[in-house]
Specification:
The protein is an alpha/beta fold and about 375 residues long. The strands form two sheets. A five-stranded parallel beta sheet has the order 2-1-3-4-5, with helices on both faces. A five-stranded antiparallel beta sheet has the order 7-6-10-9-8. The protein is built from nine helices and ten strands. It is about 50% helix and about 15% strand. A hairpin with a 4-residue loop joins β6 and β7. The longest helix is centred in the middle third of the chain and has 77 residues.
Length: about 375
């Protein structure tokens, strides 16, 4: 606090002789209260003043000024001891507390005085002392330290503010990134949906106007084959209870008759695939296969897709190829676009054929 406040508490860490000299010089200044704490033979030397714990204890007391004794031995210890980095702006621990620290030089030595200045004390007293010199040094040191602490606090507030701003910017940037990712993914999903709807529409238009069930099914398989190359495809219809269309791939072994593989699918996979898709990596590992069925289906990867309308299952679509290039779930998703329009086309054509058959019978 400034001297004009008429209250000044000074902690003297000087030797007994130097401390008495300072008290004697200030004996007429009743507004200055000096409390002495004489170190026992300077136990621990000047190094004990370099610990943050020491100055934390000092800061807890209501001292305005702390007087340290500085001599050639103190200089040697400071030169040999690394700085205590309390902060980037306060390299010495006595700069980071509110009490003002003043170095008292016992010898009138210009070199020692210059050395003390580099350790950034708030003030320096040089022996011998007189009251005017002490009061003036106190006043200058208090003002200097108060200015330093004010700037240090401003700096700490600015640093804290910048950290908070940077943190908020980082969080905001992360939120923006998430929003952008959501928008990008939404656009990708929208583009895929539009593409799927266009494919489904074109597929439905290709099926429209076809009155021969076998031609319709083979046209549908040809379109699906474009999505799943090197794949054998067949369609089983529930109404006729037989396979009505079948396209084989180049790798298909002619030793296997199409009827054999269709019959194997009919007995093993069809009963469990009329209500939900079934993807099998190796059909030869299915349980309860006969030796002939196992020989036919060994090393085959099979996908069975039920052809369902809102009312019933009209059939099952089978895709199969060799296990070294298995049918994937991505291919299942790719052809799922065609399942609904194909199911509706089959149901509509079957209803039309049934109606025409009934009319023909009625006319006869």
């Amino acid at each position: 606090m400034p001297l004009e406040s008429n209250k000044l508490v000074v902690l003297s860490l000087l030797s007994e002789a130097i401390g008495q000299e300072v008290k004697q010089a200030l004996s007429h200044h009743k507004e200055i209260k000096i409390l002495s704490c004489v170190p026992a033979n300077h136990s621990g030397g000047f190094r004990k003043y370099l610990t943050p714990d020491f100055w934390s204890a000092i800061a807890e007391r209501d001292f305005d000024i702390v007087l340290l004794q500085f001599d050639s031995e103190s200089q040697q210890e400071l030169d040999a001891y690394p700085k205590t980095q309390t902060s980037s702006t306060e390299p010495w621990p006595w700069n980071a507390i509110d009490p003002t620290v003043i170095a008292t030089i016992t010898d009138s030595d210009q070199a020692l005085t210059a050395a003390a200045a580099q350790y950034d004390f708030s003030g320096i007293l040089v022996m011998p002392l007189d009251s005017n010199q002490i009061i003036q040094s106190f006043d200058i040191a208090l003002r200097r330290h108060r200015t330093r602490r004010r700037f240090a606090r401003r700096y700490e507030k600015i640093v804290a503010l910048l950290k908070r701003v940077n943190g908020e910017q980082k969080r905001l940037r992360q939120k923006v990134d998430l929003v952008c990712q959501d928008l990008v993914q939404s656009n990708i999903d929208l583009a895929r949906s539009i593409s799927s709807l266009r494919e489904a529409y074109e597929f439905q238009m290709d099926m429209t106007g076809e009155f021969d069930i076998k031609v319709l099914l083979h046209k549908a398989l040809a379109v699906i084959r474009q999505k799943t190359p090197d794949t054998g495809l067949s369609i089983y219809l529930c109404q006729s209870r037989q396979f009505e269309a079948h396209i084989v791939s180049d790798w298909f072994e002619q030793a296997h008759d199409l009827h054999d593989i269709e019959f194997a699918f009919y007995q093993t996979i069809l009963p469990v695939s009329t209500h939900k898709p079934l993807l099998i990596t190796d059909a030869g590992t299915l349980p309860r296969l006969t030796s002939q069925q196992r020989q036919i289906m060994a090393n085959l990867s099979v996908l069975a897709m039920p052809l369902r309308t809102s009312e019933t299952t009209v059939g099952v679509l089978f895709l199969y190829r060799q296990m070294d290039n298995p049918v994937t779930n991505a291919e299942r998703l790719a052809i799922s676009t065609f399942i609904a329009p194909l199911s509706r086309s089959i149901e509509s054509l079957q209803r039309l054929n049934n109606h025409l058959a009934q009319q023909t019978i009625a006319l006869q």
